[in-house]
Hints:
- By secondary structure, the chain is an alpha+beta fold.
- The protein folds into 3 domains: about 1-45, no CATH class; about 50-90; about 110-175, Mannose-Binding Protein A, Chain A.
- The protein has 4 helices and 6 strands; from the N terminus they run H-E-E-H-E-E-H-H-E-E.
- A two-stranded antiparallel sheet has the order 1-2.
- The radius of gyration is 45 Å and the shape is elongated.
Amino acid sequence: xxxxxxxxxxxxxxxxxxxxxxxxxxxxxxxxxxxxxxxxxxxxxxxxxxxxxxxxxxxxxxxxxxxxxxxxxxxxxxxxxxxxxxxxxxxxxxxxxxxxxxxxxxxxxxxxxxxxxxxxxxxxxxxxxxxxxxxxxxxxxxxxxxxxxxxxxxxxxxxxxxxxxxxxxxxxxxxxxxxxxxxx
Length: 184
């Protein structure tokens, strides 16, 4: 029994020494395999005997390659579309920015603070004339909404009129937008 085991080992060693390298070339439509023995430098052509598993592997490899190519094309298309879209949006943004800068240049004398624009005329007017001057330009006198805005106006301008009046009822103060005065 032990002889059989040792015989298999020596047979295995003999098989290892007799190994030969083979190059297998696949040609479309060809049904032959080309073997090349590098020790003897001989070439042989033998008929290729394909089994079902080899054909299935080739088909699945082709399907995987086709899927990979399709995914690459899809990815490339998405990148191109995104680049074009980004470029168009960027141009629109730059155009809008330039238009805003030009418009801002036309607002000479105006001061922007907390989403409001303030303008102080260099001409001295009374309250009624100042209000009419503002309304003719689509604006009105200042309505102060909080302590922070009050401090900003007080520190930024020397003399100004605010939009607070008691012209309807003496002693009852209202802002020019009709809201009542609240004290904090």
